[in-house]
Known about the structure:
The structure holds 2 protein chains of 2 kinds.
Chain A: H1 9-22, H2 28-35, E1 46-51, H3 61-75, E2 81-86, H4 90-102, H5 106-127, H6 144-151, E3 153-157, H7 179-189, E4 194-199, E5 204-205, E6 217-218, E7 220-222, H8 223-229, H9 239-246, E8 252-257, H10 263-268, E9 275-278
Parallel strand pairs in A: 1-2, 1-4, 2-3, 4-8, 7-9
Antiparallel strand pairs in A: 5-6, 8-9
Helix pairs in contact in A: 4-5, 8-9
Chain B: H1 27-31, E1 44-49, H2 59-72, E2 77-82, H3 86-98, H4 102-124, E3 130-132, H5 134-147, E4 150-154, H6 176-187, E5 191-196, E6 201-202, E7 214-215, E8 217-219, H7 220-226, H8 235-241, E9 249-254, H9 260-265, E10 272-275
Parallel strand pairs in B: 1-2, 1-5, 2-4, 3-4, 5-9, 8-10
Antiparallel strand pairs in B: 6-7, 9-10
Amino acid sequence: MARVREGAPEQDFRALESLVMSRSLTDRELLEATERTPDYAILPHASVVKIGGQSIIDRGRQAVYPIVEELKENFTTRNHKLLIGTGAGTRARHLYSLGVDLGLPTGVMTILGTAVAVQNAHILGYLLAKHGIPVIGPQQFTQLPLYLAERNAVIFPGMPPYTMWQHTQKEGLIPPHRTDAGCFLVAEVFGCRQMIFVKDEDGLYTANPKFAANVKFIPRISAGELLSLKLPDLVVEPPILEFLQRARHLAAIQVINGLKPGNLTRALDGEHVGTIIYADARPERKEAAHGTPA
Amino acid sequence: MARRHDGQPQEAKHVASMLMRQSLVDREVVRSTERPVIRILPWLNVVKIGGHGIIDQGRETVFPVVEELSRALEKHKLLIATGAGVRSRHIFSIGLDLGLPTGVLSALSAADAEQNGHILGALLAKHGVVFLPHAMVAHQLAIFLMTCNGVVMNGVPPYDLWEFPPEVGKIPAHRTDAGTFLLADAYGARQLIYVEDVDGIFTDDPKTDPHAELIRKIRADDLAARNLRTLPVDRLVIELLQSARHVKEFQIVNGRKPGNILRALEGEHVGTIVYA
C-alpha cells in the first residue's frame, strides 16, 4: 500500500479535507489539490482481457474455441488473474440500425447494446463453466475479488452500466462509450497490470484494413500522437485515448489478433505482439503505474 | 464487402443490417447515424434539488421547497432528482486520503444522493410520490408518472466504478447535475431546472465576494470560455448541453426564495438560463 508522495500525510489530509468540505466541487484549487493525492491499486496483479464481439465471438466455434482454451490455460496452469470482458458485435449493429431508423435516443440504444454484451458474456460463461468461472454484472463487482482469488478469472459484459445516462455524440446516435471503454475503465479503476483487447486484426493500421488498400501497420504509438493523426477509423473506441491520457494506473493498452494462437499468452506475459498505445508521460502521475511497461 | 485475410478463418456470422460489418468507430459511419430523435416523455419536467444548497439546510429550507413541489404536482409531471451534499464531501475526503480511485469515489457517493432521495420521498409520499432506483427510472418511469405526477430519483448517474478518469484530480465528473441532465435529455424532457441556494450563476462566488454580479442568461460556450473559478452547477453539464438532442437550455433558480420553482416551471425567467 504505497503512499506515492513524501511529506507529512496528516497535514496534507487536513488541508485537503478542509478544501473538500468547504469549497464547491467545481473549484479549481480543490481539484488541483486532489490531483496530488496518492493512488492505491486495488487489484494490481489482475489483467483485463476484452474478447471482441464482431471480431471473435460472432465467428463462432472456429475463433471462440481456441481463445477459450487459451484463456483457460492462462488462468489455470499459467496462473494469470483475468477479468474477461465481452464485446457486443453484429446483433448490436442490428439493434443500433433499428434504433437509428426509429430515432431512438442514445440512452435507449445503450440499453439495447448492453443486452448483447450480456449474451456474449453468458456464451463465454457456459464454455468456461466447468472451470468454475462466474459471469458477473455491475452489481456483483464487490464479490469479484473473492471469485478472482478462488478461480483466477471472472467474465463480465464489457458495456459500462450507463444505460439511459449514456453521453450523446455531437453527430450520430451510436452510444460513444461501449465495450472497449467499459473494459478499459474496469482495468483503470482496479489498478490492473494490463489491458489487452483481443480482436481480429494484428492491431492498429493507418486505416481500416478490412476495407482500405495500402494500409500501414502501427506497432506502437502514444495516445497523444494517435489523437493528432485524426485517423478516420480506429481499432479501439476513441474515448479510450482520452481516458488513457488521464489514467492514474494504466500506462498503456495492447490490441492483439486473437485469431493467431499464442498471441494472448504472449501479451499476458508482457510481450509486444500487436499494437501498444501508451499514455504520454505525465511524470507527476505515473509513479504508481502498473500498466504494460512503456 | 469485407476483405478476407490470407489464412484467416471464415468471416463472422452476421445479422443483416445497415451497420453490418461496419466499424462503429469510423467517423463517417457514426455521422451517418444522425436522425431526429423522438421525445420519449415530452411532458416531463426535471427538477434537481441541491444536496448542499437545499437538503443539508434542514427543515427551514426543505419544508417550503417540499410545499412548493407538492403544489407544482397539481399541474406538472415532475421527475425530482436529488443532490448529494455534505456527506459526499466527507466520503470524498476519506477516500482521497486512502488513495481510492475515482470510480470508487463515485460508487460511494451515489449512496449519499440516494439517501437524500429517500428523504424527499418520505416528505412527498402523501401525494403518491415515491423514490425510484435507477433501473426503474430507466424502464418504468412512464407508468409511475401516469399514476402520480411526481417521482424522486437519485441524481448521481449509474456510472459507478465506470466513472471517467477526470481531466484534473480525482473528483468524479458525473455527479448529480450531470446525471439529471443526461436523463432529462434521454427522455426528451420539456425542461430542466436546477434548484440551488443562490440566484443563479455569478461572476464570482456570491457567498465570498459581495461584488459578484448575477449573469441572467448566457450561452454554454460563452460560459465555458469565461472559465469562472466556481459555478453552482457542475462544469460537465455545460459541455453536455452542447451535444444534447432535446435539452437546449436549463435554468438555475434559488429555491430559498418562495415561488421560484413554480414560476420557473411556468417558463418564467427567475434565475440564470444557460442555453446551447
